[in-house]
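fwd from M.: "can u put these together and see what the complex looks like"

so here's what she sent:
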Amino acid sequence: MTIDTLINIGINIGITIINIAIVFAVAMLHVAYATYFERKVIGHMQVRLGPMRVGPHGLLQPFADGLKLFFKEDIIPEDADKPVFYIAPIIFLVAALVSLAVIPYYQGFVIADINIGILFIFAMSSLGAYGIVISGWSSNSKYAFLGGLRSAAQVISYEIAMGLSLVGVMIMAGSLNLTEIVNAQHESPYGMFAIPQIIGFVVFVIAAVAETNRTPFDLPEAESELVAGYFVEYSGFRFALFFLGEYIGMFIMSSLAAVCFLGGWTIPKFVTNVLPFLTYVPGIIWFLIKVYAFIFFFYWIRATVPRYRYDQLMAIGWKILIPVALVNILVTGLVKILL
Amino acid sequence: MAVIEVRMQPTYKRMEPLEIAEKIKESFPMDVVEVTSFRDQVSIIVKKDNIVDICRYLHDDPNLSFDHLQDLCGADYLGKKEPRFEVVYNLYSIKYRNSIRVKAQVPEDDPRIRTVTSIWAGANWHERECFDMFGIKFKGHPDLRRILLPEDWEGYPLRKDYPLEGPEKEWSGFADAIETAKKYREFDWEG
Amino acid sequence: MEQQVEKILETRELNVNMGPQHPATHGVLRLVLDIDGETIVKVTPYVGYLHRGIEKLGESLTYFQGLPLTDRLDYVSAMSNNIGYVVAVEKLFGIEPPERAKFIRTIVGEMSRISNHLLWLATHALDIGAMTVFLYCFREREWILDLFEMICGARLTVTYPRVGGVRNDVPQEFLDSLYKFTEEFPTRIPEYETLIDKNRIWLKRTVGIGVISAEEAINWGLTGPTLRGSGVQYDIRKHTPYDAYDKVDFEVPIGTNCDTYDRYRCRMHELRQSNKIIKQCLEKLPPGPVMADTPKFTLPPKDKMMPITHPTKEHAYYIDEKVCKGCGMCLRACPAKAIAGEKKKPHKIDQTICSQCANCLVVCKFKGLKIVPGGKGLSEDKLKELAAFPLPEEITKAAEHLVEHFTFIKRGPRAPEGEIYVATEVPKGELGFYFVSDGSGKPYRMRIRAPSFIHAGALPRLCVGHLVADVIANIGTIDIVLGECDR
């Protein structure tokens, strides 16, 4: 091993670290403003204004919230299983954050361009369920316990439906690498897999809502039944970690939808053929538009529908989504073989 | 799933309340003590021994059908009447739109009366409240506990000899609460 | 071996304590749930956390003083409670309010029903997870509360109706704004309904939940929309009409499926019917006084006492030395401490401190106090001289009224001896007042039949066998307020 190769490795590591820092910082900023965006969107849907006090139009509200949570007292229940209690939010947040590494934001910009991108994201979101389950267990509270149990069951059930819904995409792209999936979409006649994979897309959206514990599937944290669910005993910064993790999870799911179904940073060729100037718009802009459209959709659902009951939620997952996703795989596979 | 809007019309001619009182007198001649009337409302004062039978008769008789127990409460006539307590049953018939009031006399030395929960399930909490406030025990009640006051409360507040300002001795739970507050005031919140 | 395994794997119900602090128990209701997985095995409600002894308090207050207590029963529809109380007391006194007052009371009662049902819908929907309905409902509720503020200055604890009528006549702008409300409100109801009425999730959460048959519902003593959802035609406004309900035309919604969804539909229909009643009342509102003129039972109008109490009339008060026995009553009653003197010797008023409040005049049992019209600032001797002259008739009359007013407030109107149970249809169900009067100014026994109390008692019947989430739907559907439940 020569000095040169060592220097090369060093430079690579340095670049990767810088990339990580950039992605982390930008993602955190987006998460902060996603909360602001949510409050504004839902506020206007509910004939009120949302945050207005901190800064112009409440623009500094996310920072104020962050500061408040940061300086809050960290209360730990006396009978809690302390080491587990400490580590649960960290597991949850880290599992969510690590997924950011494999998402291609635009052509060539991805921290880890691994071949099993989709699987990696699934693995990480399943790992996040551990954070929820052990936080529910270690809090030594019945509400948290019920929330944790509900969450474990929910995440596992919907993981299957979501995984199956993406199999169609994998078959069409012939790869698990997210960058290649985007490129395959760009080459395909429709420009995005959402059109040929419409069934898979619908299943994915529903499963993604459930996976991120959002309304109408927010049973683990149903505030009218379980007060706050698994994180009922958490306060201050530990609570903030859960909160961040949840919003990053939402970002991951939106990004996954954008990458796997909506063509990532590309725009379909039939659009650029008609409006050629659109090719000058940087890919990251398209990516963000798609992600935020998806996030808006999350908020929209939240402002509109009531909450499912636990047994109904499970019934939807196992009796509807999974069979539908299986049929989708079958049809996609047949089409792939026959054509 | 359909909700219909109806124009309610009285289906039967209202029976005169005194007529009802007569009917009860006929059926239970030994039990009815007195029948009084005030502003078209008739009260029948009865002895407590047959109260369940009287109530069952009022509830089951097809011509009376007092299916709705509007209210059940106690009253204390300390120094005014003998026997001291009364349990008041305000009954209403949704079908015939009649109402009647039955009052059962309960003496001070034996404040017990049989429960009517077997006739009206809704009497359950009313009787618990009556027990809570007057100390009248309902024999055969499925779950006779204090309802509005703590389990270990002393005295029966709606009795006339219970002071309005409350008892001199504080309730024991109150002292506990103060004790707990003191304990946590010294708690070290740093850790 | 098998036995051993069974022993180790013993299963138990999880015991969850829901409340008294819980976002969905509508106050301080506490439910102890025994759950097997998510299925409810047993529910034990505990109430009494808000018990204030209103029945005991009522026994020590006059019939007028008892009125504000009823605001604190069901604080989301205080107006209806007030009406329930005054209707009962009026029946006990045997007085009849004037026609205009009856119509005004019907209007405010129905407004209160709308505001209550809106709050109910808001919280019920929020409990089931539909957040937006909550804020839509509050938008209209706010309007009604503003209208309440317009007529009586209070939004929540109003104490607007009085025994024998209402506190004051309604202003024209109130009527205008209310008319506009009745025009607009029917277009707002579909806004709530579009969000939940046909929503699949809402239907899944409410249809077939908390089913209770008509017979059973009556047997449990349920009333109001909770009972009518089970298909029982029992509405006190129709059965024993009070106020102006026999002069307006309205229908009563009846459910057929006896479940949470039907009870929800019933209340939505009631919103429309209430709106219809208000509109009719506004059109029919007759002119005239708003207080009954029954001197024995209602307060004399304040303007009759004006010649004495009005501050521009510069009276002086003078104690007649010949009559004064030195009992000290006026001395204690004087808020300005202007009266001095020893026991059993004639007292004297220090005219420089006297604030002309007339308190001494009403407490004096010996008529030893004399009013000297226009006597402010005069010397003692001059007052003595002027006090000997007979007073103008206007002032003697006013003084009589003042004394009457005082004793009235102090002792209360003497109710005839007897007992009475009067029920009114409040938004939650049947609110009954049972009064036992011994002929004094205070009720000997005041009993409140609170619908929330009875509905809370039926909660175990509705919940057992359902899931945890349905407990929330059931708490919502019976529409309880713990202030009323605990009294």
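replying to her w this: Chain C has a mean pLDDT of 83.
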